[in-house]
């Protein structure tokens, strides 16, 4: 009980000094709990949606997906005949059966040809208004569509795009463009995760989406009272026979939820990973805090030992303080985590994914995990300082300063750090020299872990040398004040090393990812310059196919020399070695594609692969299956016949554009695939007539004005789009890493604040002999700057080493250009100096306000 009282008294006596450590724990726990609450809430939202929207049993064509998605390479959804509805209605246990038709392979535009698709990545759905949808939506304005000239829209989409009754709407599909006017607006009675939904009457939906009436994409079946879904499924399957997919409501909901779960799992683990980095950085802050508190209480601890306290009691006293810190920070972090989750939900609402706080889900495991994690990490971080406190002898009470550092421990630490760093460097070298990406990735991961731990352990040794160099470059211009700041940073290299290491971790990841991202862009740009011969590329940025109407419009553009179509056909191959390769694909293109893509071949000429009954394979596939020029491969086209194709070219694996592609001509594909099963174009390549590039560029954009879902890019645009995509991903990662950097900044603030308290008498003496308040504040700011620059220098150097090694592995995939983004690296390094200045504001201000006489009298 005495130990507990002592710990509580010390904790409350130093509550101001504990605050920043508590904030670090709070932020880390909040990020973990916020992630868990947010993803659990999204799961709850989708669970409710899928349960409510699924009929007792759903019947769909055999080729339809389990989730009900209808996107297809033909642009039309798979369908079943309307006569199936009658067969289902006559099955035992069926109360009702209703045919529905819908498609997600659509683009909807307003009267100004502006897309009405969600910006959140959610689908655009066009279908017929039916009883199943009426369960989850209520018509709040106007009426349901009647006749081909009417369409109904969901309220969220109407609000976002300011649609009202009578507005013109265009539905663009593979069949053509259907024009209608808004007849009604329907409001969701459940949470809408962001999809844009439009309704036509049944006949119009069939004609607009499929191109013919008398067919449905699904049949929603309702069971009689007392009939289970499993029994209903069995009876319906018996009535229909083979050739149809029959699913219960649970099976449909589970399939949909599995797709969502895959996305949410990636999001959850990524965000938890960044929270883990923040925890790791927080460990340095906590270690520094307790180390300095123990050093400042050396006399007090020595007196406790002198009056009978054992080492275990002293150790336990410090650990109890850490336990209190962990509990306070973690409990506050759990509450902040719920707030973060609500904030994320509001943010998702801004981009179109509507999540209701009514579905806010806080599982009991979330606060428990947050508190346990926060407390365990805090106590573990405080163990070393607590152990050090227990070793203080009673004689320390007779000394003014803390116990002298253990020189032997310092030597052992340096040796261990050097060994770990050397092992990490050797692992990185092995990764760079690896010929296989899998093996190289394992070496890279090991190298990153070992080198990071090595730098952390060897931090004090590095601080002694690096800080002197930085001091000579940065601090000496400030005269005596700069030299004092340098000496303060060197006074305790272990403390400086730990503080710098906290900042080093976040900046090392920033540098590594910057090098990787910049190298990817540079490599892809280099490959585009070398291989792409077409002037323009036309595609749908969401990966959907291009409708025949848009292809015709593009081909009619003046100023073009040629237009090349490009399709992807799913196939099954039987190779000369007798092996059957399922789930393969052939890229079918016009012969001019050999000019549009100057891909490297190891044997043959790619142009020959576009001859009749000819094809190409890539080198890795040829090696695995013993294929040579002239080999024959049996190719079974999905939805078509089997062809025997002759290999006329073998392409290199050392490419980026279309890496691993196998080619065939569209003419050959049409010979074996029926017209109604032929996939639509995935890409179009266009080349302008000599000297007409600018005019053709403008003409292409004008030709596709009625098809805003497609983007025309010249090579400059394409490179910029690639750069923007990678840049957006990196910015997202940088944003998540900002949490770790914020915690590191708190560590610098805390170190300086405690350092000022530790040096109270010294500061008083310096003020007494003439050091002005302004000079004192400058000294503390400069000390903070040099510590921040020390951490930045180590982090950026380490990160660039990681990134350069990772690029060597990317070179195995054809990305051979190493590009160091020096503007980013320099900007981060300079910004670190400002981070140091910011971190020193409060400690410097407090130091400047000290009363000189009181400071001198401090013991």
UniProtKB/TrEMBL annotation:
Entry membrane topology? Multi-pass membrane protein
Q: Which residues span the membrane?
A: 269-295, 318-344, 364-386, 407-430, 442-475, 496-517, 732-757, 782-802, 822-845
Keyword terms, alphabetized: Cell membrane, Membrane, Transmembrane, Transmembrane helix
Location in the cell: Cell membrane
Region Disordered: start-end pairs: 58-79
Domain ABC3 transporter permease C-terminal stretches? 274-394, 736-851
* Protein family: Belongs to the ABC-4 integral membrane protein family.
A GO CC term attached to the entry:
plasma membrane
Q: Where is the MacB-like periplasmic core domain?
A: 19-237, 499-701
In its UniProt record, a GO molecular function of this protein is: transmembrane transporter activity
Q: What is this protein called?
A: ABC transporter permease
Q: Which organism is it from?
A: Streptomyces griseoluteus
Alphabetized InterPro entries for the sequence:
ABC3_permease_C (IPR003838), MacB_PCD (IPR025857), Macrolide_Exporter_MacB (IPR050250)
Entry keyword annotation includes Membrane = yes
Q: Does the keyword Cell membrane apply?
A: yes
Q: Name one Pfam family in it.
A: FtsX
């Amino acid at each position: 009980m005495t130990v507990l009282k002592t710990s509580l008294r010390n904790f409350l006596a130093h509550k101001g000094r504990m605050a920043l450590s508590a904030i670090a724990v709070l932020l880390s726990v909040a990020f973990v709990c916020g992630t868990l609450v947010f993803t659990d809430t999204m799961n709850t939202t989708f669970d409710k949606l899928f349960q409510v929207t699924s009929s007792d049993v759903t019947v769909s064509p055999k080729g339809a997906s389990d989730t009900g998605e209808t996107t297809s390479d033909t642009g039309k959804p798979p369908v079943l005949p309307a006569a199936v509805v009658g067969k289902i209605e006559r099955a035992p246990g069926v109360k009702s059966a209703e045919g529905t038709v819908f498609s997600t392979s659509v683009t909807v535009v307003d009267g100004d040809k502006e897309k009405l698709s969600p910006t959140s990545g959610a689908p655009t759905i066009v279908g017929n208004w039916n009883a199943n949808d009426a369960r989850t939506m209520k018509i709040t304005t106007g009426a349901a569509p009647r006749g081909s000239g009417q369409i109904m829209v969901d309220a969220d989409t109407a609000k976002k795009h300011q649609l009202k009754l009578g507005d013109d709407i265009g539905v663009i599909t593979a069949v053509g463009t259907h024009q209608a006017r808004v007849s009604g607006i329907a409001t969701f009675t459940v949470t809408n995760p962001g999809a844009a939904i439009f309704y036509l009457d049944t006949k119009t939906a069939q004609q607009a989406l499929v191109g013919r009436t008398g067919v449905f994409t699904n049949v929603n079946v309702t069971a009689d009272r007392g009939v289970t879904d499993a029994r209903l499924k069995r009876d319906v399957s018996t009535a229909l026979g083979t050739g149809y997919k029959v699913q219960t409501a649970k099976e449909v909901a589970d399939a949909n939820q599995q797709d969502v779960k895959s996305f949410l799992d990636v999001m959850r683990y990524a965000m938890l990973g960044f929270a883990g980095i923040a925890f790791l950085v927080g460990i340095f802050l906590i270690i520094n805090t307790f180390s300095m508190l123990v050093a400042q209480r050396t006399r007090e601890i020595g007196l406790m030992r002198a009056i009978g306290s054992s080492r275990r009691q002293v150790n336990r006293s410090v650990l109890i303080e850490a336990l209190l810190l962990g509990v306070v920070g973690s409990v506050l972090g759990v509450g902040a985590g719920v707030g973060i989750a609500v904030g994320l939900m509001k943010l998702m609402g801004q981009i179109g994914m509507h999540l209701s706080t009514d579905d806010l889900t806080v599982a009991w495991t979330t606060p428990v995990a947050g508190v346990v994690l926060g407390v365990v990490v805090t106590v573990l971080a405080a163990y070393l300082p607590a152990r050090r406190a227990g070793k203080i002898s009673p004689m320390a009470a007779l000394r003014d300063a803390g116990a002298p550092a253990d020189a032997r421990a310092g030597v052992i630490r340096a040796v261990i750090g050097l060994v770990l760093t050397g092992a990490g460097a050797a692992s990185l070298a092995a990764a760079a020299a690896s010929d296989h990406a899998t093996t190289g990735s394992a070496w890279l991961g090991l190298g990153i872990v070992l080198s990071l731990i090595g730098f952390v352990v060897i931090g004090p040794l590095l601080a002694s040398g690096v800080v002197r160099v930085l001091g000579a470059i940065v601090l000496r211009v400030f005269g005596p004040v700069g030299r004092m700041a340098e000496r303060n940073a060197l006074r305790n290299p272990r403390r400086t090393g730990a503080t710098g290491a906290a900042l080093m971790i976040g900046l090392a990841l920033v540098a590594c990812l910057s090098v990787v991202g910049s190298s990817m862009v540079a490599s892809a740009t280099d490959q585009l310059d070398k291989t792409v011969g077409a002037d323009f590329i036309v595609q749908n940025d969401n990966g959907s196919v291009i409708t025949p109407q848009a292809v015709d419009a593009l081909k009619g553009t003046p100023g073009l020399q040629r237009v090349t179509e490009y399709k992807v056909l799913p196939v099954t191959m039987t190779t000369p070695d007798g092996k059957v390769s399922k789930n393969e694909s052939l890229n079918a293109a016009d012969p001019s594609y050999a000019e549009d893509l100057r891909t490297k071949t190891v044997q043959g000429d790619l142009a020959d692969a576009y001859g009749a009954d000819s094809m190409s394979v890539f080198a890795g596939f040829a090696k695995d299956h013993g294929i040579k020029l002239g080999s024959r491969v049996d190719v079974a086209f999905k939805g078509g016949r089997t062809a025997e194709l002759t290999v006329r070219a073998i392409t290199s694996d050392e490419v980026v554009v279309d890496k691993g592609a196998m080619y065939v001509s569209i003419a050959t594909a049409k010979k074996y695939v029926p017209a109604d099963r032929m996939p639509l174009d995935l890409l179009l390549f266009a080349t302008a007539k000599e000297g007409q590039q600018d005019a053709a560029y403008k003409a292409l954009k004008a030709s596709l004005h009625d098809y805003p879902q497609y983007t025309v890019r010249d090579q400059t645009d394409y490179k910029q789009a690639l750069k923007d995509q990678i840049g957006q991903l990196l910015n997202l990662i940088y944003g998540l890493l900002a949490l770790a950097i914020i915690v590191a900044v708190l560590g610098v603030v805390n170190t300086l604040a405690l350092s000022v308290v530790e040096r109270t008498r010294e500061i008083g003496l310096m003020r007494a002999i003439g050091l002005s308040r302004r000079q004192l504040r400058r000294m503390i700011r400069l000390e903070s700057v040099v510590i921040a620059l020390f951490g930045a220098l180590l982090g950026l150097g380490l990160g660039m080493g990681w990134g350069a090694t990772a690029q060597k592995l990317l070179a195995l995939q054809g990305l051979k250009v190493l590009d160091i983004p020096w503007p980013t690296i320099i900007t981060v390094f300079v910004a670190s100096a400002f981070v140091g200045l910011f971190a020193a504001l409060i400690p410097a201000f407090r130091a400047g306000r000290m009363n000189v006489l009181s400071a001198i009298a401090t013991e």
